[in-house]
Every structure is written in structure tokens, then in C-alpha cells.
Design goal:
The protein has about 100 residues and is of the alpha/beta class. About 30% of the residues lie in helices and about 30% in strands.
Length: about 100
């Protein structure tokens, strides 16, 4: 979900915190403006088949957040890395991503 607009003429840098089953996978993109102020945006994913269990465990309305566009579900009980890769590729077509760090 992109909340703040990036300058399309400037490069962004990304960082990905990968998960498997019980945590959120997160991807952040950061861009520095001419004024030195940084703009950052995040994307989040959880496994669709675990959303209700995670909602009860964490006390967080993940299904509602997915409907509202605050995060995405990947199919199955584990983070589907092919699905995640497709989303990251789409972001790379929208933004000039200079580098992505990951764990």
C-alpha cells in the first residue's frame, strides 16, 4: 500500500523482512527528497489460511485490514514466496528500485 507519493524521477531503496507462517512479511521502500526529508511506504503480507488464527492470537483485525487494502493475503497456510515475488516485480515496474536488502 502506497500512502505517500514518491518522486518518479528519483530512485527508491527497499528492505524486505521475510516470514513463513506466523509473522507478517514486510517490504519497505524509502526515498530521499531534495529537502533531505525521507518518504517511506510499506507493504505487508500474511498467509490467507492463517489470518483468522493470527487475528485471535494478535488481537489485530487482519481480515478487515486486507479488505481495506492495508495488507495482502498470500494463498495457503505459509507465505507464498512466488506470490510475494510477483508483487515485488510489479512494484519494480512502478518505481526505480535501486537496491533491496532482505533477511
Amino acid at each position: 500500500m502506497i500512502c505517500l507519493e514518491f518522486d518518479p524521477s528519483r530512485r527508491v531503496f527497499g528492505g524486505c523482512d521475510l516470514s513463513s507462517t506466523t509473522d507478517l512479511t514486510a517490504f519497505a521502500m524509502v526515498q530521499r527528497g531534495d529537502d533531505g526529508v525521507f518518504v517511506a511506504n510499506w507493504e505487508y503480507w500474511i498467509p490467507e489460511d492463517r489470518a483468522e488464527d493470527m487475528e485471535k492470537r494478535d488481537g489485530v483485525p487482519y481480515p478487515r485490514w486486507e479488505r481495506e487494502g492495508w495488507l495482502r493475503f498470500t494463498p495457503g497456510r505459509r507465505i507464498n514466496h512466488d506470490f510475494l515475488l510477483q508483487d515485488l516485480l510489479e512494484l519494480s515496474f512502478e518505481h526505480d528500485i535501486g537496491m533491496i536488502g532482505y533477511d
